[in-house]
Every structure is written in structure tokens, then in C-alpha cells.
Design brief:
With 111 residues, the chain is of the alpha+beta class. It has one domain. 18% of the residues lie in helices and 30% in strands. The strands form two sheets. Strands 1-2-5 form a three-stranded antiparallel β-sheet. It has a three-stranded mixed β-sheet with strand order 3-4-6, with no helix packed on it. Strand 3 and strand 4 form a beta hairpin.
Length: 111
């Protein structure tokens, strides 16, 4: 009985970590070393504005969350790129992941 209760409590804690509003992506690319997110920007967006939440599930669920709003006023039609290496994320190279952020189709840009 205790094991089931702990599983339920852990499951609820995991879900609440992903309850925040997700960053709408303009695009995403990946290679053997990193995942690169293309995000909206008005000129002051940097990697430090974001946090990547990672679930312990298989495959891992990753979610990019903006922690600092970009209040600049520049026009940046293609947004900004923020790159996170698998090492920074604590993921092994080639590990399957599930991206939970939406990608807005009409704003996808060719890099």
C-alpha cells in the first residue's frame, strides 16, 4: 500500500512540474551533440532566459520553459536560437526524447 501511495505522490509532483505554460517554438533541430530551439525574440533573448524540464519517463519528456521575458523592442522575424548539449541536459547521446512544446507551423523558418 505504501509503495502505491509513493508512486501516486511522485506522479503528481512530476505532472505539476510541467503544468506551466510551454514556450511556443518556431523550430527545433538536433544532432549528435545538442538540441537547438528556435524561439521568439525581440532582441534580448538568451539561453539564460530558459530552463529545460526533463521527466524521468522513457522516453524522456523535455519541455523548454521561458523564465525571463524578453522586453526589448527589436524586430527579429526569425527569433533566436538557444542550444543545449545533451551533457548539459544530463541525457546520453542518441537517447530518445519526447518534445512537449508546440511548434507553431505558420512561423517555422528555414535556417
Amino acid at each position: 500500500m505504501k509503495l502505491i501511495f509513493l508512486t501516486l505522490v511522485f506522479g503528481l509532483a512530476t505532472l505539476s512540474a510541467f503544468a506551466e505554460e510551454k514556450e511556443i517554438l518556431l523550430g527545433v533541430t538536433y544532432d549528435l551533440k545538442a538540441i537547438t530551439f528556435q524561439v521568439k525574440s525581440t532582441g534580448c533573448t538568451t539561453k539564460k532566459n530558459f530552463e529545460v524540464l526533463i521527466s524521468k519517463s522513457e522516453p524522456a519528456k523535455i519541455e523548454l520553459v521561458r523564465r525571463v521575458v524578453d522586453n526589448c523592442e527589436a524586430v527579429v522575424p526569425n527569433g533566436a536560437k538557444v542550444e543545449f548539449t545533451y551533457k548539459e541536459l544530463g541525457l546520453s547521446q542518441g537517447k530518445n526524447v519526447y518534445l512537449s512544446n508546440p511548434i507553431k507551423p505558420e512561423t517555422i523558418r528555414v535556417w
